[in-house]
Design goal:
- The chain is α/β, with parallel strands linked by helices and about 675 residues long.
- It folds into three domains: about 65-230, Beta-Lactamase (2-Layer Sandwich); about 240-400, Alpha-Beta Plaits (2-Layer Sandwich), CATH 3.30.70; about 430-665, TIM Barrel (Alpha-Beta Barrel).
- The chain is about 50% helix and about 20% strand.
- The strands form four sheets. It has an eight-stranded mixed β-barrel with strand order 14-15-17-18-19-20-21-22, surrounded by four helices. Strands 3-2-1-6-5-4 form a six-stranded antiparallel sheet.
- Strand 14 and strand 15 (about 445-455) form a beta hairpin.
- Bound molecules: ligand C2E and calcium ion (2 copies).
Length: about 675
């Protein structure tokens, strides 16, 4: 039997079915909506994350390329505001240290509509925030990003009222820092209520760190540059900074500039002595003290306003004990002269270093730019030339450069070059001045004297010796003299075996004598020339002997141990002669020509008398120099002077003539043929 469906029942179930379907549909719609909403939220979050990541990348890139942290900050606040749709951003820089630490507005801000918030911008860019409980001052105590939900109610006394007027709501303060160092704070303000977002804060904090890197990098670079331009000992500008400045002045001053420059070149007198006597550390301390006094003078001119005061004064240390002051002004001539005067007087009081009293004067050279200089280095060179001139006149002098000096300097340079060539071309000769036994009139020895055979003319030491010493050529030249004189003496003896005893006296320059290997040089020369060392006499001037007394004593004793004899040259012209005679092992003194020449004066004869008395007491030989007249000779003989040399007997002669005279003295025939070693 078939069962027919009950239509009523069918209807009910249809309705129920529809309702059921409808419920199902609703549920599914709900689920779909929920699913859609979830998907949308995820997407949005992903979008946001992406956007923030991009922001961080952009700022990091900008930071990597930046040379100025403020530029990076300007870029960052604009980007951050744009990405987040924030209304205003402000930058505060960290200033001061310790109890003085604060944040200061610096005029760096970004606003979406500046015209709507003038007052707030103005106040923010002038803001000074001290450490306190609320942002931004709070970041000085606790440097971490802070979210303030409602700035209007925040207690930011100064700005909450204005914030209300501009409808600003939340604020976010972000530290710009690296490690423990806070450099700045970025503040952001929104016009809608924004809930704190930890992820957002994390990104902003990272941006702050990236900009902190730029601050650190530029600070380090600045320090490096500063150090490269500063003398580490005295903290004064160094040569590089001085040259930059002078160069900049020259580039700016073209033609008829009203401001002109003077250079004051300062070289300390006697600094080397302090350094040698008290050691380098004491020397350094003296330099620091000197620098302090010099700076005091320079600062007085740089900072005191008075009519016609110089526009600028820069002092720099440009070498060991060399300083320079650059004066720029309308009255630079007078300024420079006044500064030099003040320097001499400020250096007058002694310095106390390690309980030692030290004095140090300065030689000063001044050069003025009168508009004729086109190159900065020329002005510098002329100040240097003037300083050398001052130095040659004794300590504590000032000399202003003039053209004559330049000519002198140029000819000095020329002479130096010619001397070098002359050494290479073997143009030097020795001539020999006989030394006579006054009693018998016989030759007892010779003094070897240096000559320069320059073409046809003979150049005397007075014309080139100083330049040779200053240019460092003297050591080479002196070594040649020693070898040549030893060779000649040994040759005479070889040539004429029964020559009477004679000695060969050789002048040694101070710088030559002070060489650490001087004794070795002499020993080598004796070995190479085979000369009997007892024939050799070394002449040393008093000033050379006292420069380093202990060294002198050691060297003199070593020479003596070889059999060489020693004469103290130019006796009476140096310092405290008699004291040194007792402590240094000299065999002879040579009474300086000036005492003998000045024969009219009784004072000179009294001095000669005293010298002879001391020499006798110390059992030292005496040789009088520069005997030109019979009356001088008679007087010397009368006071008991035993040996002498001078034009009355002979000038310095060639080795051949000298040998002939030596033989004649002894009554021998002149050896023949002509000696191969004559000059
Ligand atoms: P000095 O050592 O005092 O030498 C004596 C100088 O006086 C020599 O001058 C000599 O020619 C000169 N003279 C000698 N007798 C008389 C005289 O009666 N009247 C006058 N007016 N002068 C006289 P010279 O050769 O021109 O040398 C000058 C100085 O140059 C020397 O003075 C010495 O200090 C230095 N010198 C010369 N040769 C050498 C050398 O080979 N090495 C070093 N280091 N210095 C040297
Ligand atoms: Ca001499
Ligand atoms: Ca002499």
């Amino acid at each position: 039997m078939s069962v027919r469906p009950d239509p009523a029942a069918f209807n009910v179930s249809l309705e129920a079915r529809c309702a059921q379907l409808e419920r199902q549909l609703k549920r599914e719609r709900q689920i779909r909506l929920e699913a859609e909403s979830i998907a949308e939220r995820g997407l949005r979050e992903a979008y946001l994350t992406n956007q923030r990541f991009e922001l961080l990348c952009n700022v990091t890139n900008a930071a990597n390329q930046s040379v100025d942290p403020l530029d990076t900050l300007r870029y960052a606040i604009a980007e951050i505001c744009a990405v987040n749709d924030w209304a205003f951003a402000n930058v505060l820089l960290r200033k001061g240290h310790g109890g003085d630490a604060r944040l200061e507005g610096c005029g760096l801000w970004h606003a979406r509509h500046p015209d709507q918030m003038f007052a707030f911008i103005d106040l923010s860019s002038r803001l000074i925030a001290w450490p306190c409980a609320i942002a931004p001052g709070r970041l000085l105590i606790h440097p971490a990003a802070v979210w303030t939900r409602d700035i209007q109610a925040s207690g930011d006394q100064g700005r909450s009222g204005l914030a209300r007027q501009c409808n600003l709501r939340a604020s976010i303060s972000v530290p710009v820092m690296l490690g423990q160092d806070l450099f700045a704070v970025m503040e952001f303000f929104t016009q809608s209520a924004v809930e704190p977002d930890p992820q957002q804060l994390e990104v902003l904090t990272q941006i702050g760190t990236q900009i902190g890197r730029v601050f650190r990098r530029t600070a380090n670079e600045k320090l490096l540059i500063e150090n490269a331009l500063r003398d580490p000992l005295t903290q004064l500008p160094n040569r590089a900074q001085f040259e930059n400045r002078l160069e900049a002045i020259f580039q700016r001053n073209t033609g008829a500039a009203s401001l002109r420059t003077s250079l004051i070149y300062i070289d300390l007198d006697g600094f080397k002595l302090v350094n040698d006597a008290l050691g380098h550390q004491a020397g350094d301390r003296l330099l620091v003290e000197m620098a302090g006094r010099l700076r005091q003078v320079a600062d007085a001119y740089a900072t005191t306003p008075y009519p016609g005061a110089p526009e600028s004064v820069l002092i720099a240390r440009i070498g060991g004990d060399e300083f320079i002051i650059l004066v720029e002004g309308e009255q630079h001539w007078e300024d420079a002269a006044d500064i030099a005067k003040d320097i001499h007087s400020i250096l007058r009081p002694s310095f106390v270093i390690d309980r030692h009293e030290a004095r140090c004067a300065a030689s000063i050279g001044i050069a003025h730019d009168d508009g004729s200089y086109t190159v900065a280095a020329d002005l510098m060179r002329d100040a240097d030339v003037a300083m050398y001139d001052a130095k040659s006149r004794g300590p504590g002098r000032t000399v202003t450069f003039d053209l004559g000096m330049r000519e002198k300097a140029v000819s000095r340079l020329k002479l130096e070059a010619e001397l070098r060539t002359a050494v290479q071309l073997d143009e030097f000769r020795l001539h020999y001045q006989p030394i006579i036994d006054i009693g018998s009139g016989k030759i007892v020895g010779f003094e070897a004297l240096l000559r320069w055979q320059r073409g046809d003319s003979l150049v005397y030491p007075s014309e080139f010796l100083q330049v040779a010493e200053d240019s460092g050529l003297m050591n080479v030249l002196g070594a040649w003299v020693l070898r040549e004189a030893a060779t000649v003496a040994a040759g005479w003896r070889r040539q004429c075996a029964d020559l009477p005893p004679f000695y060969m006296s050789i002048n040694v320059a101070p710088c030559q004598f002070l060489q650490p290997n001087f004794v070795d040089q002499v020993r080598d020369i004796i070995a190479a020339t085979n000369v009997d060392p007892r024939v050799l006499v070394i002449e040393l001037t008093e000033n050379a002997a006292i420069t380093n007394r202990e060294h002198t004593r050691v060297v003199l004793e070593a020479l003596r141990a070889m059999g060489i004899r020693l004469s103290l040259d130019d006796f009476g012209t140096g310092y405290s002669s008699f004291t040194h005679l007792q402590t240094l092992p000299f065999d002879n003194i040579k009474i300086d020509r000036s005492f003998v020449t000045d024969g009219q004066s009784n004072v000179s004869w009294d001095i000669i008398d005293a010298m002879l008395g001391i020499a006798r007491a110390l059992n030292i030989g005496v040789i009088a120099e520069g005997i030109e007249t019979h009356s001088q000779l008679d007087r010397l003989a009368a006071v008991g002077c035993t040996f002498g040399q001078g034009f009355l007997y002979d000038k310095a002669i060639t080795s051949q003539v000298a040998l002939e005279k030596l033989c004649a003295t002894a009554g021998y025939a002149t050896p023949n043929p002509v000696s191969p070693f004559s000059s």
